[in-house]
């Protein structure tokens, strides 16, 4: 078993997906299409951009698999990438902030986020020394909020006007969700008993 | 025109008949209530109430009973 302070690339599987750390070689036209799609980027308050493959490769290369992880979600049946997680670890405080993008809209509403995130929570709590996971969806990102609640994360607060809309400059409210390692293990144990 | 019932709103959100929605439906326990259905549900609640939900109201929606509370509260306003 890896030590709690270990670092390095992640490679996991779930029933439907492979989750692995991305490299610059994963910069694809498919992914570039997501960054140009307002329906994908809008709920995240991320700007719609036409990135070159070179830009995207440089973006991916900035993730070090120690403090910052960029983990692709690949459908096992086809090998196609359908999205990715960005995870920022604070090893001093043993926390990790989770963000996720499902770029392939055919997969929306099909339980991708929570299936993949469950495996990542298991991994980061067990093998990367993380004690608490955090998430901060925008209040109007209802699908993301649903996923946190369905997975048992706790709503810990609401930050009023925390973000500036990239679309129109309006102030946007944001939730804080949290999940401790203890809570997650209790949820897992409860699920196993059912 | 009368406001739709909570069960009708959830049934529409999951594209199903209201008879298929259990009285105790809740997030995480009723499989058909998925993330896209939740998005549809909140937008339809807002349409029924004629206003946006505030953050505290939106994050408190976990069950059919919570939806009913919002709709009934809206009727009383």
The arrangement of helices and strands of chain A along the chain is EEHHHEEEHEHEEH
Lateral arrangement of strands in the main beta sheet of chain A: 1-2-3-4-5-6-8-7
Unreliable parts of chain B: none
With helices defined by DSSP (H or I, 4 residues minimum), what is the helix count of chain B? 4
User: What is the percentage of strand-forming residues of chain B?
Assistant: under 5%
Number of strands of chain A: 8
What is the number of helical segments of chain A per DSSP (H or I, 4+ residues)? Answer: 6
Rounded radius of gyration of chain A (Å): 16 Å
* Quaternary structure type: heterodimer
Class of secondary structure makeup of chain A:
alpha+beta
First-last Cα distance of chain A:
28 Å
What's the helical proportion of residues of chain A? 25-40%
Summarize the helices and strands and which ones pair or pack.
The complex is a heterodimer of chains A (194) and B (77).
Chain A lengths: L10 E3 L3 E5 L7 H7 L2 H4 L11 H9 L6 E8 L5 E10 L4 E8 L9 H16 L4 E4 L6 H9 L3 E11 L6 E10 H13 L1
Chain B lengths: L5 H8 L21 H15 L5 H5 L4 H13 L1
Question: What would you note in describing this structure?
Answer:
The complex is a heterodimer of chains A (194) and B (77). Chain A is of the alpha+beta class and 194 residues long. Chain A contains 6 helices and 8 strands. Helices cover 30% and strands 30% of the residues of chain A. Chain A has an 8-stranded mixed beta sheet. Chain A is globular. The two termini of chain A are 28 Å apart. The radius of gyration of chain B is 11 Å and the shape is globular. Chain B starts with 5 loop residues before the first helix and ends with a helix. Chain B has helices at residues 6-13, 35-49, 55-59, 64-76. In chain B, 53% of the residues lie in helices and 0% in strands. Chain B is mainly alpha-helical and 77 residues long. Chain B contains 4 helices and no strands. Chains A and B meet through helix 5 and strand 7 of A and helix 2 and helix 3 of B.
